[in-house]
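Let us practice reading a record.
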Amino acid sequence: MVDQSVVITGRGLVTPAGIGVTENWTRLCSGESAAVPGPDLGRLGAQLQCPVPGFDADLLLGRPAARRLDRFSQLAIVAAREAVGDAGLSPDTWDGARVAVVMGCSVGGIATVTAQHVRLLDRGPEAVSPLTLPMGLGNMVAGHLAIDLRATGPNLTVSTACASGATAIGTARQMLRSGACDIAVAGGADASLDRLILSAFARMGALTKRTADPATASRPFDRDRDGFVAAEGAGVVVLEREGDARARGARVHARLAGYGASADAHHVTSPHPEGVGALAAMRAALADADAAGHDVDHVNAHGTSTKLNDLAEGRAIHALFGEEVSVTSTKGVTGHMLAAAGAAEAVYSTLSIEHRMVPPTANLEVLDPEIRVDVVASAPRAQRADMVMSTSFGFGGQNAALLVAAP
């Protein structure tokens, strides 16, 4: 029988909170927002954004390689290299045929596509780059990772909007448990700080209008929240069956104890107001782990800083856990990284286990009185967190929940 226990042995992060896991954790615990002024969209107004600070693709990947990659793939490769190295693995020594790559993305290489569309309109079809599709297609993040890591096992990209990174990790776990691979490199990446995407979000009313003070704009669960700050980033983990990891003497960061998914089947953008789909995904993750609500110490919430999401999620968390678990949203610091969010937040969950610390929800000044959960604010909270639920929800009502536990 194939070993059913799956563990996280490698972690990699490239986010607005920094490049690398250590830098991310320090920034999260500081509660310092990464939001900065973004583009002015004319009548839609000035916007905010959370870019990855100091990311030099030419330096990190080499100029020839960087020029052939859209930014979302650049971010993913750097995060994946950190995760693989952290796991003590190398493409030089592993059996690539037994290594799967499963990545989540939402908007894909949108910057490449929009730039080439401008060239098409201005200069005609012959001006369009032959690299448009290899750079712009959403599936290429997994394809480029496979080339970089020489991983010839199962290779796929999943897209469940802002739940994509969590869905990818859950899918990779299922592949390991089925015996389809021995190692899985999984996570999510998006680079959505493009005028088209920002304009679309702004037209929907999803973005914050608190542009005068970027540092306080993203405020999950706060009474005065009014929208999210768009962000870019990548989060990647290395997953292995526990028996294989222990046999090679690997450091185990956490067990990936459970995964649950669901659909609201309610509305194309708005969550079910009672959080029915979110609750179903969380219950499925608990059932998958053969665990109960009282086993969970902490919830790393999706917490986007939008009126509807935070209220629906708060209701779902209260229905399952009451006020017995601590809750945080790291999007007060990072902004909303779309597909990368769930993967990065799964890594943050493992760090809470490791450090026995819950980062604060940045900018939470007055908790929305309709959200009856124990949200950590102002400063990190020292607490034992042996089992953490990480939640992710996306447009289309697509929901995912990951349950990570102490090794």
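A brief commentary: The mean pLDDT is 97.
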